[in-house]
């Protein structure tokens, strides 16, 4: 049975306000103009419903579509394209090779880039210096791909409009400026990463992105509380910071699920 | 549409990930050239085609490079969509579930299996416990179905069956019996082994064991 539009489908999103993974789905739903119910999860006291819908990983986001749960943000993004095939805003590219490339770099983002950022944020001193080096070498791979790889010449990874990979990489990249301030470290030098810098600026200018991403101030407060805890200071004064942190391990902070 | 172009697969004969790609290509009846990589001395072509991870498998289709086994499987399914049944189910919910479990296998089964082979003492015991726990979860997912995909062999079956030739190795390194603990899974393995694509692709358990011993030695885990 083909579901044409969300007025005949029920969508429920379990998420957390500071989780980039949740933002990915909120942004996708906005781009697709789909209505949904949102349930904010306290990550230190996860609801029975969340645990029921995602017993294996017990994480947000989880999308429940017509009563059936889909966990893992990348899977949800694929699902939304496939469940609403006539929706004009398809997130993944059509061509098999473009799809494979987008999926590869999405995998890279979660597998390598995210943890590299987390390592910077969770460390200080010499350890942090090494972590920053590592992050920069990972980002250089993305920059290279934007410069003369598969995505060369494009404004966004998907072309003229934001799509799957923009959403995946973008929802999370706004943390970079936050971490730069809180951890007092330079991560994205516009001179060294001109294309990534330009892409991120354009991504953050999109109306739908502005509507979804929490304010810089709010993210800053959250990050300050988180860094205190990661560096062993205790606290957690940030809004929901204590709650969000309980589900977080140092070195895996980038996940924020 | 370009599916007449040359297909080259860079892989390694005991790679659970590379073997997935071979089975998928066989299932779709796609002619391809196989190039064996020495994982301790990677070829220039491999390093240039996958500079980010420097790993097999890599599929080179004409001038296009595809990396990561599950991504390659979806690529194959899409490009050769007119060749035999789809590897992924049609229903979006089931597709999401399939992808979820395939990813679970790639991470959890592979990781705990590797730790069984290369660790000692408490770490090894923990790895064994995790490994069996994950297999039992998968056995639960199989349920009473003939295949993970339902009545027909598909994506998720391909994702897991390549580990079957490694079972003897895990059992020997770990000192436990997978076969005794997961009889339903073993029945499924035997059923999959009746498929030509699987039977002609998978190395024998003994070959895998010999390779695993060599790898362990070379990595200095003795």
From TrEMBL, chain A:
| Record bears the keyword Transferase | yes
An example GO CC term for this entry is: cytoplasm
Q: Give the keywords, sorted.
A: Transferase
Coiled-coil regions listed in the entry: none
Recorded source organism is Dendrobium catenatum
The answer on whether this UniProt entry bears the keyword Transferase reads yes
> Which terms does the record give in the GO molecular function aspect?
glutathione transferase activity
Instruction: List, for all copies, the residue spans of the domain called GST N-terminal.
Output: 9-88
Q: Which reaction does it catalyse?
A: RX + glutathione = an S-substituted glutathione + a halide anion + H(+)
Q: Record's superkingdom? A: Eukaryota
Task: Name the enzyme's class.
Answer: transferase
InterPro entries (alphabetical):
Glutathione-S-Trfase_C-like, Glutathione-S-Trfase_C_sf, Glutathione_S-Trfase, Glutathione_S-Trfase_N, GST_C_Tau, Omega/Tau-like, Thioredoxin-like_sf
Which GO biological process annotations does it have?
glutathione metabolic process; toxin catabolic process
Start and end residues of each GST C-terminal domain = 95-229
Query: Known EC number(s)?
Result: 2.5.1.18
- Name the chain's protein: glutathione transferase
């Amino acid at each position: 049975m083909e579901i044409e539009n969300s007025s005949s489908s029920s969508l429920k999103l379990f998420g957390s306000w500071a989780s980039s993974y949740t933002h990915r789905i909120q942004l996708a739903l906005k781009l697709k103009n789909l209505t949904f119910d949102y349930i904010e999860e306290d990550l230190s006291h996860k609801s029975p419903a969340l645990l029921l819908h995602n017993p294996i990983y017990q994480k947000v986001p989880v999308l429940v579509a017509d009563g059936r749960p889909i966990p893992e943000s990348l899977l949800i993004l694929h699902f939304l394209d496939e469940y609403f095939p006539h929706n004009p805003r398809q997130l993944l590219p059509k061509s098999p090779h473009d799809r494979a490339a987008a999926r590869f770099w999405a995998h890279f983002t979660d597998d390598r880039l995210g943890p590299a950022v987390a390592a910077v944020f969770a460390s200080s001193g010499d350890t942090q210096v090494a972590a920053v080096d590592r992050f920069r070498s990972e980002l250089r791979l993305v920059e290279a791909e934007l410069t003369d790889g598969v995505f060369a010449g494009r404004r966004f990874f998907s072309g003229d409009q934001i799509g799957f990979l923009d959403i995946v990489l973008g929802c999370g990249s706004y943390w970079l400026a936050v971490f730069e301030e809180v951890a007092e470290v330079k991560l994205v030098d516009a001179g060294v990463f001109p294309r990534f810098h330009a892409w991120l600026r354009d991504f953050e200018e999109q109306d739908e992105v502005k509507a979804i991403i929490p304010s810089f101030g709010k993210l800053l407060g959250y990050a300050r509380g988180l860094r205190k805890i990661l560096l062993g200071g205790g606290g957690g004064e940030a809004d929901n910071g204590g709650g969000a942190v309980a589900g977080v391990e140092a070195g895996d902070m980038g996940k924020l699920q | 549409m370009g599916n007449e172009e040359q297909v080259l697969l860079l892989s390694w004969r005991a790679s659970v990930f590379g073997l997935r790609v071979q089975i998928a290509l066989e299932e779709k009846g796609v002619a391809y050239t196989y190039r064996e990589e020495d994982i301790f001395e990677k070829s220039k072509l491999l390093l240039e085609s996958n500079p980010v991870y420097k790993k097999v498998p890599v599929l080179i289709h004409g001038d296009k490079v595809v990396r990561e086994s599950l991504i390659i499987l979806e690529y194959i399914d899409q490009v050769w969509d007119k060749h035999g049944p789809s590897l992924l189910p049609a229903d979006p919910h089931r597709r999401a579930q399939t992808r979820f479990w395939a990813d679970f296998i790639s991470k959890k089964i592979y990781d705990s299996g590797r730790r069984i082979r290369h660790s000692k003492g408490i770490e090894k015991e923990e790895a064994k416990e995790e490994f069996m726990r994950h297999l039992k979860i998968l056995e639960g997912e199989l349920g009473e179905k003939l295949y993970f995909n339902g009545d027909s062999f598909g994506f998720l079956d391909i994702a897991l069956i390549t580990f079957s030739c490694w079972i003897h190795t895990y059992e020997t390194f770990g000192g436990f019996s997978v076969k005794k603990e997961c009889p339903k899974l073993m029945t499924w393995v035997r059923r999959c082994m009746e498929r030509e694509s699987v039977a002609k692709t998978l190395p024998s358990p003994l070959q895998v064991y010999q390779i695993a011993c060599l790898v362990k030695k070379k990595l200095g885990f003795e």
